[in-house]
């Protein structure tokens, strides 16, 4: 059974940083296309980042490019999202998915960016 559990969210100030983790079970993150998505209050789901199965390419929308970095650790079977230079508009619940933005989704973690 595929299971995904995001963690690492919290309160950050504008300009601050957070690192999200996504612990996976039931499959190997190192063999899978993985993504992060987010949903802000009252808004639709937004794709945040993806990494291809071989881990050679990463993808970001313009809204987070240069500020967010997706990575993974095969030994820990965990996906990460390093978020720097956070903005108030980054406030959302963040989810990891197996696959693209429409992939299998686990429990999310709340990120709040506020001064």
> Mean pLDDT, rounded to whole units?
96
Tell me what portion of residues adopts beta-strand conformation.
over 45%
Helix content percent band? under 10%
Shape: globular
Give the ordered list of helices and strands: EEEEEEEEEEE
As a whole number of angstroms, the C-alpha radius of gyration is: 13 Å
- Give the class from helix and strand content and strand pairing: mainly beta
Biggest sheet features: 7 strands, mixed
Give the termini separation: 40 Å
- Give the number of helices: 0
Number of strands: 11
Q: What low-confidence regions span 5 or more consecutive residues with pLDDT below 50?
A: none
Attribute tags:
115 residues, 49% strand, single chain, 0% helix, mainly beta
Structure write-up:
It is a single chain. The protein is mostly beta strands. The protein has no helices and eleven strands. A hairpin with a 5-residue loop joins strand 9 and strand 10. The termini are far apart.
Present the secondary structure layout:
Layout lengths: L2 E5 L2 E3 L5 E8 L8 E6 L6 E6 L6 E2 L8 E6 L4 E6 L8 E7 L5 E2 L3 E5 L2
Parallel strand pairs: 2-11
Antiparallel strand pairs: 1-3, 3-8, 4-5, 4-9, 5-6, 7-8, 9-10, 9-11
